[in-house]
Amino acid sequence: MAETADADREADRDGDREFRSVPLGEIETARSRHMWTRSAVHVSEGGDLVVTGEWDGTVTAREVDSDSLEARWTADHPDHAVGITTLSGDGTESDGDTAETVIVAGRGETGTIAAYDAATGERRWRYDTVDDLGEAVKDTVFYLPYVVALESGTDGDGNERLYAAARRYERDGETRQWHSTVYAFDPDGTVRWTYETDASPIAIDLDADGERLAVGYNRCMGDHDVGLVVLETASGDLAWTWDPGTEGDRRVGDVSFDGDSIAVSSHGDKRGYLLGPGGAERWRIDLAVETEIDGETLYAYPNHAYAADGRVTFVTGNTYAVESRETENRHPNEHRIATFDADGELAWDDEVRGFIHGLAADGETIVAPCAQNFRVRDPETHAVRRFDLESGPQRVDRLAGIATAAAVDGGTLAAIEEPVAYHDEGETRGEYALHMAPVE
């Protein structure tokens, strides 16, 4: 992959800050290394409502057109609020209209999925995934039940559905085990079907027709031994599976539908794939494969994928060394975003410079919230970066703290900033805040 933007070119893309911002309260300051997902943000379809989820369980809805960004409502979620989506209706009516519903995913003792009225914040229903996954066997965040992904959409019959993937990890000596469930819900919270495995799901995506649900599994160390599962949404039945065929338990980082194709970022071999129906390989690309530099074998995980309009975008993460935890070297393709055309040819690429917790996209607009680069510890990496699927880099909005979550829809962009203090500096940078901006 060719090197592209240098510091001067990147500076040319920086614009005057156009964010409107509001503080979110207090959160533990991040350090040099990345913390787990602690915040969530969602922009409703049409871009008129922004909902934030916080580590203390606070869920807040704000109207985009409000000059002060004053909260429409605030609710307390039973767990850490780490994922959000919306449904257009839940079968109930508010003031004569079908009520839009905010769905919140939790990480905590109960691993709760809950629905809140978008107009009032009233909780409409609650489902605790702990009943399926089992309780945490150790009081640490990594052992807690965790709803890792939400997806909503309409099936071929016009019925709205909610899909979720949840997991729990445990370890007994040398034995490590995952418990996971994929769910399909009706808007009123009724469970239509579940799909259970002993692997760790990391991402789900729904096809445009609402007929197939792709589930990416990151860690497979039990009986379930495939990285990608495609399910029939009507029944939860297995349609087909795919795997990179690599040794070890690392498999898939992300999945994204585009028509009858699925883009897959592979943690197994650090490549990007475009698959056709049944898992037929259309092409594969070396993204951050093992590369020897100064006597070390280095690699980086392709963590995110986004496919639309015949193009596929992948984002890679941190450098790691095969033989050691620490390294002074860096993989040449770490922290990069790259887009490929329908034939697998590189269309454009650019640096993102910091770790991306999650990619946000709406049509041709791609938003990358960039956090710290723990091997470099350069505050210039903290930014919200925008890209055009067709032409590449568009804008860089820098933050004092780290950008850890973003959402974009209906011409509205929202991002979460968290404070950070690098371990060898002693200075706290940034604040816990919501930032919003229009997108043309």
Q: Summarize this, please?
A:
This protein is mainly beta. The protein contains 2 helices and 35 strands. It has a single domain (76-438), classed as YVTN repeat-like/Quinoprotein amine dehydrogenase (Methylamine Dehydrogenase, Chain H, 7 Propeller).
Walk me through what this model shows:
It is globular and about 60 Å long. The strands form nine sheets. Strands 24-25-26-27-28 form a five-stranded antiparallel sheet, with no helix packed on it. A four-stranded antiparallel sheet has the order 1-35-34-33, with no helix packed on it. The protein has helices at residues 7-13, 130-133; strands at 20-23, 40-43, 49-53, 58-63, 71-76, 80-87, 93-94, 97-98, 101-107, 112-117, 123-128, 146-154, 160-172, 175-185, 191-197, 200-206, 212-219, 228-232, 238-242, 252-258, 261-266, 271-275, 281-286, 291-293, 296-308, 311-321, 336-340, 346-351, 360-362, 365-370, 383-388, 392-398, 402-409, 412-418, 433-438. It has one domain (76-438): Methylamine Dehydrogenase, Chain H (7 Propeller), CATH 2.130.10.10. β22 (271-275) and β23 (281-286) form a beta hairpin. The chain has 440 residues and is an all-beta fold. It holds the Pfam family PQQ_2. InterPro entries: PQQ_b-propeller_rpt, PQQ_rpt_dom, Quinoprotein_ADH-like_sf, WD40/YVTN_repeat-like_dom_sf. Residues 64-242 form the Pyrrolo-quinoline quinone repeat domain. This is Pyrrolo-quinoline quinone. Residues 1-20 are annotated as: Disordered.
